[in-house]
Design a protein that fits this description.
Blueprint (H helix, E strand, L loop, with lengths): L5 E6 L3 E7 L2 H7 L6 E3 L2 H10 L4 E5 L1 H11 L4 E4 L6 H11 L4 E2 L11 E7 L5 E6 L13 H5 L1 E7 L8 H14 L3 E5 L3 H6 L1 H10 L3 E5 H7 L5 H8 L5 E5 L5 E4 L4 E4 L13 H14 L4 H15 L11 H7 L4
Parallel strand pairs: 1-5, 1-9, 2-7, 3-8, 5-6, 9-10, 10-11, 11-12
Antiparallel strand pairs: 2-4, 7-8, 12-13, 13-14
């Protein structure tokens, strides 16, 4: 088997984020469920955007944020996601390529525009997301390059991408290609409502195709339909090689067939915006995993990266994660 060219290839929704501050009253007026992601159509996206306060535009998308975090650590990453050949699409592609990420998915020349996510950040740093998928819905199995998948140690799948019609087929193709090449497959559950919409498919994917599962407390409880984290953590045991379960200020739990390891959260001076916390945790963990670190160090790297991103607005690091990790003695 040839040596891998990339640490991780991420497959997900290519989205440009628009972040704005909001209070709970605004969320209530708009009928939004705090701390979750809702899919919206073009008309709803335009109406909500008109009501939002001043916004900050930044390239986002869950898996893309993870790959950006990996690059900031000094890792090698590639990305697969569908854009339109429009202004937002050009910005998204430039932002990834400028940090050394390989991104060669052909853009659409017609049809829906590049996706955008309207993110409302409340004073408690919770983020409530409203996503217009746009061009993302066009990603299908034909966009999965066998050579690219076989060239990465880990193929990382974004759970949000389950909503477009052909995404499941693309995911299964990517997972099968990765395992055929002797590589690993990782999956992020992404959102509890997304899990609820596709629970049977997620359970099958975890059972049959996933080596490393990432989920927060609400997502893993949704997957196994329980209100108790301990029961959900026990339920996932043995269904994948490693389950990485994040719990915000309670840190994270890493579950394997034989053990459960707890990792404390990184110290953060002030939580500003929780957008991207899970994405960056996955970046740190996957960097450690693909560079031979033990699971505890992988978890500490994840906590470090999540801690950096929640200290400022936006879902991608503002400080070199490699510098932070070296200073912490983790790499």
């Amino acid at each position: 088997m040839a040596a891998p060219s990339f640490d991780v290839v991420g497959i997900g929704n290519a989205i440009v984020d628009v972040l704005a501050k909001a209070d709970d009253a605004f969320l209530k007026r708009q009928g939004l469920a705090k701390g979750t992601m809702a899919l919206v159509d073009a008309a709803r996206a335009e109406a909500l955007y008109a009501e939002m306060g001043e916004g900050i535009e930044a390239s986002g998308g869950s898996a893309a944020n993870t790959i950006a975090g990996l690059a900031s650590l000094g890792g090698s990453g590639a990305y697969v996601g569908k854009l339109r050949d429009d202004e937002l699409g050009a910005i998204f592609a430039h932002d990834l390529k400028s940090i050394g990420v390989a991104f060669n998915t052909p853009p659409l020349t017609s049809g829906p525009p590049t996706a955008r996510c309207l993110i409302l950040v409340t004073p408690d740093a919770q983020r409530t997301m409203n996503t217009f998928l746009g061009a993302c819905v066009e990603l299908g199995p034909e966009d999965i390059d066998a050579d690219l998948i076989s060239a990465a140690q880990v193929t990382y799948l974004e759970g949000y991408l389950f909503d477009p019609p052909r995404a499941m087929e693309a995911f299964r193709k990517a997972a099968e290609l990765a395992h055929k090449s002797g590589r690993k497959v990782a999956l992020s559950l992404s959102d509890p409502f997304c899990v609820g919409r596709h629970r049977a498919d997620f359970l099958d994917l975890v059972d049959q195709h996933v080596d490393v599962l990432f989920a927060n407390e609400r997502e893993i409880c949704s997957l196994y339909q329980t209100e108790h984290f301990e029961l959900a953590a026990e339920a996932v045991r043995g269904h994948c090689e490693i389950a990485v379960l994040t719990r915000s200020e309670r840190g994270s739990s890493i579950v394997t067939a034989k053990a459960m390891l707890h990792v404390a959260p990184a110290a953060v001076a002030r939580v500003v915006d929780s957008t991207g916390a899970g994405d960056l945790y996955a970046a740190g963990f996957l960097y450690g995993l693909t560079h031979g670190s033990d699971l505890e160090t992988c978890g500490k790297l994840g906590s470090l990266c999540a801690g950096e991103v929640i200290g400022h607005f936006g879902a991608r690091p503002e400080t070199s994660l490699k510098t932070l990790a070296v200073s912490a003695g983790l790499i």
